[in-house]
Fold:
Amino acid sequence: MERSVHFAFGVLGNIFGMLLFLAPVITFKRIVKNRSTESFSGIPYTMTLLTCLLSTWYGLPFVSPNNILVSTINGCGFVLESIYIILFLIFAPKKEKAKIFGLLALVIAVFTAIALVSVLVLHGNGRRHFSGVVNTLFSTLMYASPLTIITLVIKTKSVEFMPFFLSFFMFLCTTSWFIFGLLGNDPFIYIQSGIGCGLSVVQLTLYAIYYKNKGGNKSEIC
Structure:
């Protein structure tokens, strides 16, 4: 019974995870239409790309048994995040492009190094623990990346640049994976998901406070 419930929350995590990964479509429709990234940040998408790679790696059977559902959704997330980053780079100003290109190069280097160490140096539980710790660390950084947008919301008292569905689906997704991790007794899943759940609650709370003001104070943003 417990294994069935564990699997069910993994499936829910995949469903809500897909909705989370698709949530930025609304934002990128606006970016493409206006041919500008405006005040949207490319950092969350780049950090999400890294965590998708690390989570996909961690969920593979030869790294972490019984976590293949972690790999399926994050593999899909990797494809979608790659598309978002390409679109962001097309319409971002030169300074922002340089920053995202640099961050993207770092992401590729970090993942390659971690994968090589996992395969060539570590085995069994050592490989799982190493991959799990690294995945938890970078996933926590990913969940913390929207703090820049949270700061902007508080400063401008506007939720214009904090899409509601992105925060809402993050709450549903991280809650599902938090329970999945608890049921599977996997701290590398429930710790990062618990942090993400807490931060998504903060974003939803700010949205509830400032949702009537979506125009923002343009002078404060600049």
In short: The longest helix spans residues 94-120. The mean pLDDT is 86. The chain is about 80% helix and 0% strand. The radius of gyration is 18 Å.
